[in-house]
Amino acid sequence: MSFLAPLAFALLGLAVPLFLLYFLKVRRRRQPVPSVLLWEPALRDQQASAFLRRFQRDPLLILQLLALVVLVVALARPAVTITGRGADSLVLVMDVSASMQATDVAPTRFREAQRRALALIDAMERGGEVMVVEAAAQPTVLVPLTRDRDQARRAILALQPQDTPGRLSEALRTALALFPRSRPLQVHVLTDGALDVGEASEFRDPRVRWTAVGRRGHNVGITELALRKAYYGVYEHQAFLSLVNFSQARLAFPLKVSIDGRTVSEQAISLDPEVKRNVIVPFTHKGGGIVRVEIGADDDLAVDNVAYGIIPPPRQLKVLLVTPGNLFLEKALRADPQVAVEVRAPETYEGGMAGFDVVVLDSASPARIGPGRFVLVNTLPADVPLEHLGTLEQPVVLDWARQHPVMRFVDLSKVAVEQAMRVRPVAAGKALLEAVGGALLYLLEDRDRKLIFVGFDLFKTDLPLRVAFPLILSNSLRWLSPVGLEGADLMVQTGTPFLLPVEHGVEEARVRDPSGEEWRAPITRGLLSFTRTDRTGLYSLETGKGAIRFAVNLASEAESNTAPRPLPEAGAAAGGVGEVFQFHREVWTTLLLLALGLLMLEGILYWRRQTAGRWTIPARGADRWALGLRLLLLLLLGVALGKPQWTRWVDRQNVFFLLDHSDSVGLATRETAYRAAVQALEGMKDDDRAGMIVFGAEARLVEPLRPKPTFRRSEAEVPGKGTDIERAIQLALASLPPGEANRVVLLSDGRQNLGHALAAAQAAADRGVEIYHAPLALPFADEVVVEQLLLPSEAKFGEPFYARIVVSSVRETSGRLALYRNGEFLGSQLVKLTPGKNVFTYRQALEQSGVHVYQAHLEVDGDTIEENNRAVGMAVVRGKPRVLYVEKDRPQAQNLVAALRAQHIDVELAGPEGLPKDPEGLEKYDGVILSNVSSLKLTTRQMESVRDYVRDRGGGLVMLGGEESFGLGGYYRTPIEEALPVTMDVRQKVEIPSLAVVLSIDRSGSMAMSTDDRVTKLDIAKEAAHLVVELLDERNEVGVQSWDTEFNWVVPIVPAKDKETIHHEIASVRAGGGTDGYPALREAYKALYERQAILKHVIFLSDGQMTRGDFAGLVRRMAKDKITVSAVAIGKDADVQLMIDIAKWGKGRFYYTDDTHTIPRIFTLETQLASKSSLIEQPFRPVLATPYHEIVQEIDWSKAPPLGGYVATSLKGSAEMLLMTHQEDPLLAAWQYGLGRGVAFTADAKAKWGILWLRWKDFNRFWSQTVRWTLRTGARSDTTATVRRHGGLGVVTVEAVDPRGEFINFLEAQLGVVAPDKTQSAVSLEQVAPGRYQGVFPATQEGVYLVGLAQRKDQKMVGSQIVGLVVPYAQEFRELGSDETFLREISELTGGGGLANPKDAFELHRRRSRILVDLWPWLAGFATLLLVPEIALRRLGPLVSYAWRGFRRRS
Amino acid sequence: MERFGRSGGWARALAVLAALLSITVGAGTGEAKARPLLVLPFQATSPGGGDDWIGEGLAESLILAFRSHPAFLPVDRARVRQAIRAAGEDPEGPLPERTVLAVARSVRAESVLLGEYRREGGSLTVVPRHLEVRTGGAEARSGEPLQGSLDRWKALQGDLVRYYLKALKVAEKPEEVQRLAETAGLTANLTAFEAFVKGRRAYLRGSQSGYEGAVELFGRAAELDPGFALAHFELGQAHLALGNRWKAAAQFRAASQFDPASPEPFKALGDLFMSSPRRLYEQAIEAYRRAIGLRPHYAEAYVGLGDARAAKGDYEAAIAEYQKALDFDPLNARVHFSLGRIYYGEKGLYYEAVAAYKKAIELDPYFLEARMGLGEVYEEKGLYDGAIAEYRKVIEVNARHPGAHYNLALSLEKVDVKEAIAQWERYIELASQLPSEKDWVDIARQHLKKLRGLEKGQ
């Protein structure tokens, strides 16, 4: 026996007054004396009733003293030492996941689990300790190890099941990490077994016992809900649902899908046992809305029978562009449909956001910009934490942050910058684009400001001309401010943090959960995070700028599958059995009970005495008061037995130090961190407590939280090949007492490569735990890292490409860089390394189909870590590219065909008729070359197919010049012109020769017949005439004649000035009569002969059904007099041969049309031809306009021979002019059109204009580069696959959209994986959304995983891909140095920050801890004290009342 | 010795084999080569006129007979007449021996068939002769006189054919000889035959009146012997020359019905279809094919077929047909002309076109279309001197060739304004008399006006 509060024995002194009170004489009465004679007897009587009397034994006094002693002993907290045997520690891990709500066990599985848990506590050996862990989204230690079973019971009874997926492994891992492996322990997991027990190593720990509560699996659930807006319709959507029947019986139930209460689909579903069915519900909906999906199944689990989806309302991003004038920016911003731009002059802007979402500052320098979201272009306001150091002249781009959202899908390797600002960041940020000498694009982010800095003038770079520019701008705006939220962002799984970027200026947000409870959602750096998503349903988020809804669904097959699965057997090594141990047990409650009994007994006896045994209230006032006091005293003791507590704020700070022991943190740095933690302890105050955790890939509790600890250097071994900050924080959270001023100090380099630290930080924030960080510096002074080996994901057969090796070095050094392909040594090179990033580029070409794995290895003397000097990459070669070469004169195509074939390009030569009529027919080709093919030889359908093939299917298109190409081929305003980088309308730079045109129109009766499209042949002819008139300018002359058997001049040859009149006259032509075109033509000859125009041309429109004249003689003679004649045969019944001959004899062209659609092509072509404005037949040397472009690279253009002519065109706005002619017309132009690329080469590649080029040594290279640049990359299929790594898993996502933009659903998709160790595995892909499929495979080995995919639908192959996933070598060593930005992000999320001084861990922003204090000693003590006044009142009561009465009388 | 002998045996066997091979190859190549024959009208030795049609009739029948034999290539009479005229002789009069040889050489004939005849009442004596040009102008060899009566005219023609086959050393089977003899016998009706021969003479004269006379004479022949297929055929030709296409077509069809084995009417029908305003190329091809079917070595039909193909735009096929025509008739200038036209007009092959035209002119120096074609090629290529020379040669042959005059004026415009003015004036003078040229006179005047303006300006 021992006493925990021996001071309480001082209260035994109260026995003295008690005892003394019993010497007082209680009954003395007042006696008046009438005479002094009676004084003497009265005095005797007076003496007989003296104040004090002799002590008399009173049983009440004994009882009082006894009670006093018992109370005092209780207050001294006696404890007995007991020897126990058996398990001393019981950890109860309670599964609170959604499946625990199943009702197969009455009332629910969870209630059964609670009952079993209580039974386990009851069954514990005497003295055993118990700990309760809740396995929720974040594992929570509800009750740390305690012997207070009641506390544990209370905690268990207070638990409620949640709607979240189970995370038992996390909970188990945390629970186990709290104890050393040597400690005897029984961990009981109370679960329904709705989990994959093989998935975590923790499950196989011998200390773990499993208690299953499930009975059957009778459930059908919605395991997936995804909404996607269709590509082809403005309001078209599709909802994708997965329904699974997990029971052993066939189930039929109704499925209802509604939007905002409006039912869009209602169907009966019948599912066989263990069958999954995917359902697509297409619907049309305008604006935002809420989709509710409900199945009316009568099953054991209700939570998965309803799911919600969100269609986000359309939003616009308001952008202010402050610029002195920048069309690049303005155009790119205006091209974004979700952006509303306002342009202001710099002098009107004085900083701030001015009510906009993002401000783009271009070359405008306000003094300050203040907080907000900014894109700074070529400007650096004073309050931006960047230091301007000077300028960089022609900086060479090294690398860019390829994974950052702003830089996604861009290639900046060839960006040329003339001059840039040289800056040095003052605050932590991230370089997005790095060049030799500094960052060109930089990202800064702090609490109230996010900005992207572009350090160069857009007029001094070619970036705005690249596809990357609008992409970067668009990505930047979306990164800076949320816009166009995807529905998927507003739908999360239960237990997953809801993260949402919010507009600038939103400081606070409130979230109302489905039960109506309101929560405050913290916003850090513009990102709102809300973690209480443990209930399914609709949540509403309200900020100062509006409200939105978001949906939380269970959507977990593992949870919906309520069928109990076999659980692991307990291991034999479960410890703790049979060991003897001792523990203390307090007995104050017994003593209090005893005291309570004694005092009650004493009170009753006294009461009976005073009322003479009657059950009435005592007559005397003092007795009544005394009885009242006794009741109060008893009440106090009764309350004290209830162990009441009260909250008290104390100056206590609990701090956990998390020390990073991953391999990237060197021993010296670990020592520094340890010393910092030890030094921090000096700042502790008396009540403060501290603990220590070390972590790498796993976390270990080295020092539990306790006051005045002495930290030892950790001997705990943690796996160092990874950095999992999340686990470390989770372990700290589990160890910190809730409600107190808790703090975590993270001593790490912040290079997380496992886990999700931000989620753990969010959980910490929710529990009020601050995280502070102290970044650990890079310990390696000479370190060189081969960061990446960059290769194109797919290369064509023989196509040259670059292998880029990105190396970062701490100091200037040199090394030998070796390159290997498929294990074969390719060569090595001595390279010089400068501090920072270095990029080494090697030109490669692969002439073998298949997968090629490259490895780079760098040897550097003095390098510390060897493992990070290797990098691996992969390229897939799909086979020779195939090109369709459509040529008018096939024999003349041989030069180009030979050149391309020599460069490993398969060429298929065809005439115009060989061009497929639909994009599917073009699918087998990677590109199309059109050489001197007139548009009139192609149907509109063929041209549309080519355009769609380029735009929608990523095909390549090259058009070569010739007399029937570009404008001369009638491509003006055709679908093919849309796909080309040039337009056919020619800017007039030179005075074109004057032109006189006569339109000779057949108005005979046969021309009144209609063609298929219900217009007469004459209408077509008149339309043609109108067009010709429209195309001519006033320098030209035009005449219109019409004829049947007679001819007349509708419009005599006049200058094309008064077009109105001419049109009117043409319109007046009416059909009727016979046909004799000869006199009209002869008249046209005579009339034109007289004209002074240099070019004279007749367009002869007829169906050819006419009286024959000597057309041959006439037209040939016209040709001799330089009057050309073109013939247009109209209608299906036209005498085509005659018209062909007329055109041939007349040295003009023949056209055939039977619809009005062809007319514009014919006449624009005719007019261009006639005016000769497009055909420039002069020798010239090509002028290089864009030297960096890959088409023209590595060619000595100074030695390029001259060309003999070209077709004049005009460059389109977004196209690039690579080569130009002597008249600055495009010779070679290129652009990206939709998914594909188009190139225009306006000269030819044959012996006409390009005869000297045929012998040019770079001819083959030039054409190879040109054609290859356009060729389609990627698989020829409707599906695209991407693979990424996420937490040790490779995640493959396949998007399937057909050419019309419709999602391809219900594909059979397979996935084969070859791991770096050559083991093969097959995984099936599951559909997860309309047109989207996903599959995962374990990706833990370092090296290249090859992933082959194939998708089939209805036994037909829809697509196939080969993709690779590179798991870098020595990931822990790949990124060195501390990521302070990330550490700061973690800290700020929790309200913490950086620590400048170790002692600040305790001293900085101290908070008071709220602790609970036991009230019973105070209550019991007060009751003890009350005993004395109560007894005094009893004993002194008559005297007091006598004195009182006397006093009143006197007064 | 034995061994040696055995070896010699092998050598002999090889030699025999080689000889066999060479014979086979030789036979194959020799078969394709036809011998150009110049058949001249037989000259009368009997006094008095009025029966000179007999000599022409003999020549006509020989031409017809040998045309149907692949080994012979009788030169067209129209061309012969042109050559005779060019040699300065009267095509209808007797020719001196030396002129005969010159004419034969100019038309590239290897043999000349000629002879004399004597008519005495109803009997006729024919002395056939032939001349081998290849041997270098040796004297004509005379054969045995052939005697017969006019009543047995057909038999006499058959004998004549037999004689020449023998004289030309062509060994034929008796039935083939008989077939040729039959072919030579055009009609049993002497009066009809006379009308026919006279009609031919009129036709060959070439003028309007000549054609009209020919129509009358052929009509009479056909009337006298309604089954006289050749008369119908020639009547069709005469109608065609007069521009009466319908009548021509009817006669060609009648000819083909009376003598279904004769390819000429089909070939003529093909030509008719070709020149039809309705451009009946398919029908023309069909007709040419039938002609070729009847006479596989019918070079002219191949030329027609080539023209039809070219008209349809199938130039490669046309060239192939022309090549076949050349195989059977290497001396056909028209084939080269057609090739030249395709080479330049359709394929833009300047050198090939010029070579083809030149070949045509070489084979037939009076082939004016070929000269015009060559002139136009030169003109278009800016070689005005060459063009002017060609046009002038055409005018030399045919002083009233309006096309040559027109083109000459145009070419002269480029080199000599004064000459051009003079030429335009000549043209206008000529064209004013020709109804076919009336359309061009106005144009010529415009040119003239323009040139005069230029001249004044200078």
Which structural traits does this protein have?
heterodimer; A: alpha/beta; Rossmann fold; 9 domains; eight-stranded mixed sheet; 29 helices; B: alpha/beta; Serine Threonine Protein Phosphatase 5, Tetratricopeptide repeat; seven-stranded mixed sheet; 21 helices; 7 strands; disordered N terminus
Commentary on this structure:
The complex is a heterodimer of chains A (1451) and B (458). Chain A has 29 helices and 74 strands. Chain A is an alpha/beta fold and 1451 residues long. The two termini of chain A are 59 Å apart. Mean pLDDT of chain A is 83; it is low at 572-577 and 988-993. Chain B has 458 residues and is α/β, with parallel strands linked by helices. Among the domains of chain B are: 33-184, TolB, N-terminal domain (Rossmann fold); 189-262, Tetratricopeptide repeat domain (Serine Threonine Protein Phosphatase 5, Tetratricopeptide repeat, Alpha Horseshoe); 367-458, Serine Threonine Protein Phosphatase 5, Tetratricopeptide repeat. Chain B has 21 helices and seven strands. The model of chain B is unreliable at 1-32 (pLDDT under 50). The interface between A and B is medium-sized, with 18 and 17 residues.
Into which percentage range does the β-strand content of chain B fall? 5-15%
Determine Rg of chain B (CA atoms, Å): 26 Å
At the first level of CATH, the class of the domain at 33-184 in chain B is: Alpha Beta
End-to-end distance of chain A, in Å? 59 Å
Q: What is the mean predicted local confidence, pLDDT of chain A? A: 83
As residue ranges, the low-confidence spans of chain B are: 1-32
State the CATH architecture of the domain at 33-184 in chain B: 3-Layer(aba) Sandwich
As laid out across the biggest beta sheet of chain A, the strand order is 16-15-17-18-24-23-22-20
Average pLDDT figure of chain B: 82
Oligomer: heterodimer
What's the tally of helices of chain B? 21
Query: Roughly how much helix do the residues of chain A carry, as a percent range?
Result: 10-25%
Gross CATH architecture of the largest domain in chain A: 3-Layer(aba) Sandwich
C-alpha geometry of chain B: globular
Helix/strand-derived class of chain A? alpha/beta
Overall structural class of chain B, as computed from helix and strand content, comes to: alpha/beta
Annotated CATH topology of the largest domain in chain A: Rossmann fold
